[in-house]
């Protein structure tokens, strides 16, 4: 893989770089010219392409695309030696989806069918792979951050990570793999039971951390937190780094901060720790995130004399999202067969001489499953009661209106228009 990009090869010897996204379930590629695409999928050149005759629209937290559904044969260079037929959305229109200089021409959603578009009957790529081959139901990701680069001989691109299909590569991590259960198979939903900043507990009801869900999403850059949690976390981070003053816009992701090249004061920024429920639901384990992960380098505005960063923790209205800034510290195993996600320290995480990313445990608790957020369910009898009440309210409003209409009709019969005796009461019905 190249960065988060998987290389896919189509049968007419056409290669595309694809963004690997564990936060969506559609496989989609650019199929029309776009200013940010150097190449795109030419359906007309493929004798194996089949048009499904349906359109599809997919919005993301930022950006959207729409296109046409079809299927085609494809293979994965340097992956399982198989060719499979998979659903493909040919992107014909998009807004803020393709990114200039990103070097990817499509997206591979690796989540479950429940969130596929237009509906869950569309089989995701990984499900097609499992059905048509003997590949085990597991994949793993090593995302390497902007501070880590390494060239592989497989190509001229700078490689920033790996995706292992069907298994685990122990050479990509150090230490033990710790697993947290997949709470629900739609997104890769997990349960966070505690958050600390510099070892200090945010001391919130653990349900707040998972309101209304917590997911592991390689397609999102930031660590995104629910509003109350975000405010508490920023307050704690700001207090820990108070030896320097930062503009309020920095904490909102609207302004950058810069230091002279090579002099970034990493030591003043705290470690953020997330505690995830382990497979033993009365235990948890801790993953520690360094400032080298949550301060995102912004290269296109920095000069040779400065290093500039964006704060990559942001507020969310859709729950906690453990995005790339989290995953870049860890080798993450999506063990779908056993319905669990594993974390171990990545061999390519960026660190300094004082601190390193860590996965540690166990920590004991009680009934940690209760930290998960449950959407309030309304039973059928309650819905029927609400329907009857609404019908009664409508009837109360409609009855006077009907009486007024009848009165108006009766008045018109007694006083035809043109007699000069027209009543102004009709204006109440305009």
UniProtKB/TrEMBL annotation:
Location in the cell reads: Cell membrane; Cell projection, Axon; Cell projection, Dendrite; Cell surface
Which keywords fit this entry according to its UniProt record?
A: Acetylation, Aspartyl protease, Cell membrane, Cell projection, Cytoplasmic vesicle, Disulfide bond, Endoplasmic reticulum, Endosome, Glycoprotein, Golgi apparatus, Hydrolase, Isopeptide bond, Lipoprotein, Lysosome, Membrane, Palmitate, Phosphoprotein, Protease, Signal, Transmembrane, Transmembrane helix, Ubl conjugation, Zymogen
Catalysed reaction, written as an equation = Broad endopeptidase specificity. Cleaves Glu-Val-Asn-Leu-|-Asp-Ala-Glu-Phe in the Swedish variant of Alzheimer's amyloid precursor protein
Supply one GO CC term from the record.
Answer: cytoplasmic vesicle membrane
| Pfam families recorded | Asp
Could you say which enzyme class this protein belongs to? hydrolase
Q: List the Gene3D superfamilies hit by this protein, alphabetically.
A: Acid Proteases
Q: Does the keyword Aminoacyl-tRNA synthetase apply?
A: no
Domain named Peptidase A1: residues: 3-344
Q: How does it sit in the membrane?
A: Single-pass type I membrane protein
Q: Could you confirm whether the keyword Transcription regulation appears in this record?
A: no
**Major place of residence:** membrane
Instruction: Specify the signal sequence span.
Output: 1-22
Give the GO terms filed under biological process for this record.
amyloid-beta metabolic process; membrane protein ectodomain proteolysis
Q: What is its EC number?
A: 3.4.23.46
Segments passing through the bilayer: 386-406
InterPro entries on file: Aspartic_peptidase_A1 (IPR001461), Aspartic_peptidase_AS (IPR001969), BACE (IPR009119), BACE1 (IPR009120), Memapsin-like (IPR033874), PEPTIDASE_A1 (IPR033121), Peptidase_aspartic_dom_sf (IPR021109)
Q: Which GO terms describe its molecular function?
A: aspartic-type endopeptidase activity
Record's function text: Responsible for the proteolytic processing of the amyloid precursor protein (APP). Cleaves at the N-terminus of the A-beta peptide sequence, between residues 671 and 672 of APP, leads to the generation and extracellular release of beta-cleaved soluble APP, and a corresponding cell-associated C-terminal fragment which is later released by gamma-secretase. Cleaves CHL1.
Membership in a protein family: Belongs to the peptidase A1 family.
Name listed for the protein in its UniProt record: Beta-secretase 1
């Amino acid at each position: 893989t190249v960065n988060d990009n998987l290389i896919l090869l189509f049968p007419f010897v056409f290669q595309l770089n694809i963004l690997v996204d564990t936060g969506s379930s559609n496989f989609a590629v650019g199929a029309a010219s776009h200013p940010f695409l150097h190449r795109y999928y030419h359906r007309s050149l493929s004798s194996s392409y089949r048009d499904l005759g349906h359109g599809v629209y997919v919005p993301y937290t930022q950006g959207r695309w729409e296109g046409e559904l079809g299927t085609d044969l494809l293979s994965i260079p340097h992956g399982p030696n198989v060719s499979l037929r998979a659903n493909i959305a040919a992107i014909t229109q998009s807004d803020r989806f393709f990114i200039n200089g990103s070097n990817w021409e499509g997206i591979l959603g690796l989540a479950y069918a429940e969130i596929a578009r237009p509906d869950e009957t569309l089989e995701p790529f990984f499900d097609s792979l499992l059905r048509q081959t003997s590949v085990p139901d597991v994949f793993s990701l090593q995302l390497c951050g902007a501070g880590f680069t390494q060239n592989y001989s497989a190509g001229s691109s700078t490689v920033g990570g790996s995706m292992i299909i069907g298994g685990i590569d122990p050479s990509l991590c150090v230490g033990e793999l710790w697993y947290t259960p997949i709470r629900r198979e739609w997104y890769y939903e997990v349960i966070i039971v505690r958050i600390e900043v510099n070892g200090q507990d945010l001391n919130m009801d653990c349900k707040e951390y998972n309101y209304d869900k917590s997911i592991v999403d390689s397609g999102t850059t930031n660590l995104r937190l629910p509003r109350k949690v975000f405010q508490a976390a920023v307050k704690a981070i700001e207090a820990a780094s108070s030896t320097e003053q930062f503009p309020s816009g920095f904490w909102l992701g609207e302004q950058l901060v810069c230091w002279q090249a090579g002099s970034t004061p990493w030591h003043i920024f705290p470690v953020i720790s997330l505690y995830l429920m382990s497979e033993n639901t009365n235990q948890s384990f801790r993953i520690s995130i360094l400032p080298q992960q949550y301060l995102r380098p912004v290269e296109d505005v920095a000069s040779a004399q400065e290093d500039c960063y964006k704060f990559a923790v942001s507020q969310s209205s859709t729950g906690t999202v453990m995005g790339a800034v989290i995953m870049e510290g860890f080798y993450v195993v999506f063990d779908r067969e056993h319905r669990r996600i594993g974390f171990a320290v990545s061999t390519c995480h960026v660190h300094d001489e004082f601190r390193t990313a860590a996965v540690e445990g166990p920590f004991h608790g009680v009934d940690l499953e209760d930290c998960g957020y449950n959407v309030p369910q309304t039973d059928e009898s309650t819905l029927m009661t609400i329907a009857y009440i609404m019908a009664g309210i409508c009837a109360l409003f409609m009855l006077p209106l009907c009486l007024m209409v009848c009165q108006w009709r009766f008045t018109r019969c007694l006083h035809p228009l043109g007699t000069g005796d027209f009543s102004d009461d009709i204006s109440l019905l305009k």
